[in-house]
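FORM 7B: Structural annotation worksheet

SECTION A. Query
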Amino acid sequence: AVPAERRLSSRDGVDRREGISLQEFWSQYHVARRPVVLTDLGHLFAEATWEAVARLCGGMAVVPDEFAPEATSWARLIRGGPSWDRRPRNLSLWMAEVAAGRVPPHMGIFDKGLGYDDDAQGCAELLRRIEVPHYFAHDLFKHPPEGFAAALLNANLSLHADPFTRHPSLFVQSTGFKSGLHVDTLASDFWQANLQGRKRWVLFDIEPELQAPLLNKTYHIHTQLVQSTRGGPSLEVRWDTSFQDDASMAPERSASTADSRGEALRDGPSARLAETSDAPGVRAPHARQLEVIVEP
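SECTION B. Predicted structure
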């Protein structure tokens, strides 16, 4: 449990800015680890309309995620989920069902990677038609400085170790879809751009050392004997995690909503969110995430 005296209060609202310089963004928000909504980026995603995404990326094979309040999985999401009828879907069919109101609010396409060469898996053409704002164009793995590449080499690693190699990724969800309280993979920075509709983020200001206790993150180790390719048995070890977060331990929260074309939220690793879509949407996160919401 997190001691009561160590619970942190939330920030007093989230700044909404336009026309800020890279230096201002870096010093006032990135280094300070403060969230911010940037309100003037719509022109960079002008070609990422609902119709364009369906046309350019419609052949992608997709599997829905399901939000389950009782789940102990990350963000309370279950890949596939008990409501999925196991019918194969491509993205264009899924988008048509979302637009027609036939997708229930607890199901959505969540974090489907676009960075594949195969059109059945990714959507390179969409990536060619959007422009990453210069505030977010400094991904260490995508544009590594020499020192970073050398450090990887010294650790017997390479740029192929990029944990976000398939990002940007795509979200397609109907009105009311949400995820549970969570911390992003590797506590990474993220940004999400809202093109149309409404998106509400609830941010919790929690220092990194308190995140796992608050979420009650638990590791589970599984072992079993399997037949080895060398002829004899070997011990296989697998692990996973569960989260049974206690809402009563959460600090005070602040919420921010993006509801017009070109608004983007940027947040750092000390806070994460429970997110809700207030309109049908397509979202495409870039590396530490770009999110594009388009209402059909």
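SECTION C. Observations
The chain has six helices and 16 strands. Residues 1-12, 269-274, 282-296 have pLDDT under 50 and may be disordered.

SECTION D. Sign-off
Analyst initials: ____
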